[in-house]
Amino acid sequence: MIRLRTTVAAGAGLALLLAGCADDSASDTTTTTSISSEAEQPPALGALPERPTDGDPVSCTYTPDGRAAEDVTPPSDADVSATGIAEVAMTTSAGSIGLLLDRASAPCTVNSFVSLAEQGYFDDTPCHRLVTSPGLQVLQCGDPTGTGTGGPGYGFDTEYPENVYEQGDPQLRQPVVYPRGTIAMANTGQPGSNGSQFFLVYEDSQLPPMYTVFGTIDEAGLAVVEEVAAAGDDGSMSAGGGAPNLPVQIESVTVSS
């Protein structure tokens, strides 16, 4: 079973789900929520639910939290497009990774990601965590501090697939398959805790459907992530995984549509 493990200490620091400091005990000012894999996991219950189709523009809520890793302007929150694909080229020190962001599935998430990219928020930032465990194989990026605690200074709610389920549905706690090639958001498990950290799924992974899926990775980009994964990680994070042995520095993120 994928287990949610929460360590709460004094202070206002925040580490995103699927993230965490190199050592959860290293700081007494950090609230850390992380996923760890127990020795035996049951098979995932099935696939992600059907994705939403293109729809009318939506309104989004981006709530300031006063903890910006870098100064940015929050994205527009009105008349946010829920139609079409945003094509993104992410140039990294390990190679180029192409992303196709699905506005219909996660309009508020794509709106935020595009806004941050256009402001240069992701430029010259590391992908700070690699996980290579069976059932959870991801590369996590999006924190300018490289610690797993950084965000854009605002938070927003999860979208697809969580919003497809009824509130309180017990299936939200059961694992489903996040397919190879998925890009999804990290969060703390609390409402409104999406920020800037995202993870690239390079092999089918089992997770509760509580992490916003907002696009896919192209095959060339997956080959880059797989090369990074093959080099392993330093095991520095008690929640699982660690910094990639083959460092990945995002050099630029460019949105073409």
Write a compact overview of the structure shown.
This protein is mainly β. It contains 2 helices and 18 strands.
List the helices and strands and how they pair.
Blueprint: E1 2-7, E2 13-15, E3 30-37, E4 55-58, E5 63-64, E6 80-82, E7 85-92, E8 95-102, H1 107-118, E9 125-126, E10 129-133, E11 136-141, E12 154-155, E13 176-178, E14 182-185, E15 198-201, E16 205-207, E17 213-217, H2 219-230, E18 249-255
Poorly predicted regions: 1-16, 19-42
DSSP helical segment count: 2
* Strand residue percentage: 25-35%
Reported for the largest beta sheet, the result is: 9 strands, antiparallel
Strand order of the largest sheet: 9-18-7-8-17-14-15-11-10
Instruction: Identify the overall geometry.
Output: globular
pLDDT averaged over residues: 86
If you compute it from the alpha carbons, what radius of gyration comes out, rounded to the nearest whole angstrom? 17 Å
Describe this structure in words.
This protein is mainly beta. The protein has 2 helices and 18 strands. The strands form 5 sheets. It has a 9-stranded antiparallel beta sheet with strand order 9-18-7-8-17-14-15-11-10. Strand 7 and strand 8 form a beta hairpin. The protein is globular and about 45 Å long.
Name the features.
mainly beta; disordered N terminus; nine-stranded antiparallel beta sheet; 9% helix; 257 residues; 32% strand; 2 helices; three-stranded mixed beta sheet
